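User: Just a sanity check before I run the rest of the batch. Below are the structure tokens for the first item. I only need the designed sequence back.
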């Protein structure tokens, strides 16, 4: 149910000549918004809409607001944000790529159609990173 709540937002930012996307929650006071972020201009989207928007922006860096991640983890009651994202999208929220298979498992999961499943990523493998430090 938490993933369906439309409180996520994003803003394109540029710091030191580098473009990035800053991700936050509209319902949580931001604790580390970069200069130039325009949260008031962002639509309110659910988690799937946020992921789609980030992928569509195709920017080299994703910077997650620390207060948004902390509040989400508090609401998840013991489940880390990274695990939650991985459970929903079968990828790492910092890199937007599927994690490597566990040791001893096959290199891909077989889908009902006989192909290899991409975990709902549509084959996307962008070069995203997490955190501050532009």
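Assistant: Here's the designed sequence for the first item:
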């Amino acid at each position: 149910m938490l993933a369906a709540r439309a409180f996520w937002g994003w803003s394109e930012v540029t710091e030191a000549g580098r473009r990035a996307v800053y991700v936050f929650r509209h319902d949580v006071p931001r604790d580390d918004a970069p200069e130039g972020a325009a949260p008031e201009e962002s639509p309110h989207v659910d988690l799937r809409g946020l992921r789609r928007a980030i992928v569509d922006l195709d920017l080299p860096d994703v910077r997650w607001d620390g207060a948004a991640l902390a509040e989400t983890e508090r609401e998840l009651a013991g489940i880390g944000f990274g695990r939650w994202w991985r459970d929903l999208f079968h990828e790492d929220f910092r890199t937007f790529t599927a994690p490597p298979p566990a040791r001893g498992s096959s290199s891909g999961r077989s889908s009902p159609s006989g192909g290899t499943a991409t975990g709902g990523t549509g084959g996307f493998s962008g070069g995203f990173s997490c955190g501050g430090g532009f």
